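User: My advisor asked me to double-check a structure prediction for Protoheme IX farnesyltransferase before group meeting. I don't want to rely on an old file, so could you generate it fresh from this sequence?
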Amino acid sequence: MTDINAYDAAPEGEFRDYVALLKPRVMSLVVFTAFVGLFVAPVDVHPFIAFCSVLFIALGGGASGALNMWYDRDIDAIMNRTQSRPIPSGRVEHSAALGLGLVLSIISVMMLGLVANWFAAGFLAFTIFFYAVVYTVWLKRWTPQNIVIGGAAGAFPPMIGWACATGGISIESLLMFALVFFWTPPHFWALALFMKEDYHNAGVPMLTVTHGRRAARRHIFAYTLVLAPFALWLGVTSVGGPLYMAVAVVLNAAFIRGGWQVLRRDEDAAIADGYLVERRVFKLSLYYLFLHFLALLVQSWMGGW
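Assistant: Sure, here is a fresh prediction for Protoheme IX farnesyltransferase from the sequence you gave:
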């Protein structure tokens, strides 16, 4: 006989729980960078097509997040930072997350192909696959370079936006990719410095776990140095201009300075003040990317060089 109480015990997620599966904070970055990539492209796009393109790119990003949460439900239940997510907290069944991720993946790719072009749609499909399979299933649990290689998934959206408008790839879209790609490691490693125990307990081979915090500090500073030339190079392309260049110079000087401060930090001093400098650099990294793309957007409106 079927136990009626079994139905009562089954999780009944609310709408906001299913929205949380899509990682809205991450998706907001995907939406913004994709929109900028589309807007600064040298092709006029009908506002309705532009809106639908960004919408379906956002759905594709959300699909990636749902698939990531479905696969990572075991380690999410261990890490303090992720224990409140819908699946480990028991608000949504993992099978529902898988179904949502697959359905949104198909819808987003097919609709982007119909609204924009099939090159952009194929690019979106590859991005979803890269994040959900290459990064989540393989890289994240296998190598301390997980953030470096896997960061490509988060760097593709501006290229997809550009492809929606132009149907192809250019040096400008590649440099927007490079801006996000080389920003990702110092951004996440700064977070990992004050969240090391989470990754250690979950068995995730983050650089801070496998090579120690001193190595992570060296890598953070090195990547701020590698990142700066690409950010400035973007400023002398067709999408750049004096406003963007001024913003890029200030932000990269601040980011390099922050990386240097993190490098010179003594671990005992960092523990004593609760990783104050590392938290400050992590916060700066959030503003860094947003302000670069905002400057591109405003520069496009004003006109470039």
